[in-house]
Design a protein that fits this description.
222 residues, mainly alpha, 0% strand
Length: 222
């Protein structure tokens, strides 16, 4: 197996191990390490394989976000939010470098339909979240960061939909990444603990997030 293929397989195995052994348990140093390891490994593999510096940055910033969100406390949450926001920005640059173009986006009905659906979904999610993060609520100061984050992932999704057909794996990965963000936002701001556990929200976030990152790394390196 090549370096990239081996790295993708190992990353997937570590992600599965984390999901089975560590995800349900409280915060700990080992849990944080195991949560950070899969995407950090992808960043290292991308760097060693000579991948785009922005792909390396996107994966590395995502790993920072993983570690931060594995800890407790408001400052860790803000670090995690910032890491993932910058990761999405880096992915936008990756997609543009790979040929994402307005002509591609408007050249197929399914792409236009998906773009329209994405925009509607982002507006609905933003409105849904903002209602919960009222100006007088304890999380009121998160209204601007959350708005910025929703805007950035909308842009990332639109640019991903504008990728040429040969990068369909990256487009799929970007959609999975966005879906994981949407489920995580619902878990954090809308669902109480019992409902989140009933719907296995943590597991769904991890499944779509890791699948998305693996697809993005594979699409950019293979």
């Amino acid at each position: 197996m090549t370096l990239v293929s081996s790295g993708l397989v190992l990353s997937a195995l570590i992600a599965i191990l984390y999901g089975v052994l560590y995800l349900p348990h409280p915060t700990s140093t080992m849990r944080s390490i195991m949560k950070t390891a899969p995407i950090a490994l992808l960043a290292i593999i991308a760097w060693l394989a000579g991948g785009s510096p922005f792909l390396v940055a996107a994966l590395g910033l995502s790993a920072v976000g993983d570690f931060a969100l594995s800890r407790t406390g408001r400052h860790w949450f803000l670090i995690g939010l910032s890491g993932f926001l910058l990761a999405h920005c880096a992915y936008v640059v990756v997609f543009v470098d790979l040929g994402a173009d307005w002509v591609v986006l408007t050249g197929a009905v399914w792409r236009l339909g998906a773009a329209f659906g994405l925009l509607i979904a982002m507006v609905v999610i933003w409105r849904w979240l903002i209602v919960s993060i009222g100006p007088d609520s304890p999380s009121g100061d998160l209204r601007i960061p959350v708005t910025a984050y929703v805007g950035v992932i909308a842009v990332m999704g639109l640019v991903a939909l504008a990728l040429p057909a040969e990068y369909a794996l990256m487009t799929t990965g970007a959609m999975f990444f966005i879906l994981s963000d949407a489920i995580l936002a619902a878990e954090l701001f809308k669902l109480d603990g019992a409902v989140a556990r009933r719907w296995r929200a943590d597991y769904l976030v991890w499944l779509f997030y890791c699948s998305g990152q693996l697809a993005l790394a594979a699409g950019g390196l293979l």
